[in-house]
Backbone:
């Protein structure tokens, strides 16, 4: 009883963890952490999951996904991965063209 009151780790809910996910450099790292947390949630509405997913995405990625208007989390994840892949391909590599 005393350990609950005065010590130990602070207990937070899965939903608090979903809101607090750190923004990741790579979308795949973010998706992995997000999916791990979602797998621990009780039955959750798809709209809630989409909201949590979009909330912590990098803004440039989020802005490119929204026009596609994904209706479920799986589709949003697929689009996010496609967007990141396209952005990586369009970045200059720093080398000279051959």
Residues:
């Amino acid at each position: 009883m005393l350990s609950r009151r005065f010590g130990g780790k602070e207990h937070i809910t899965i939903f608090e963890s979903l809101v607090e996910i750190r923004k990741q450099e790579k979308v795949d790292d973010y998706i992995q952490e997000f999916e791990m947390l979602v797998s621990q949630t009780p039955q959750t509405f798809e709209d809630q999951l989409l909201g949590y997913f979009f909330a912590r995405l990098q803004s440039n990625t989020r802005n490119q996904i929204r026009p596609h208007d994904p209706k479920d989390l799986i589709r949003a994840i697929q689009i996010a991965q496609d967007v990141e892949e396209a952005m990586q391909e369009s970045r200059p590599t720093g080398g000279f063209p051959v």
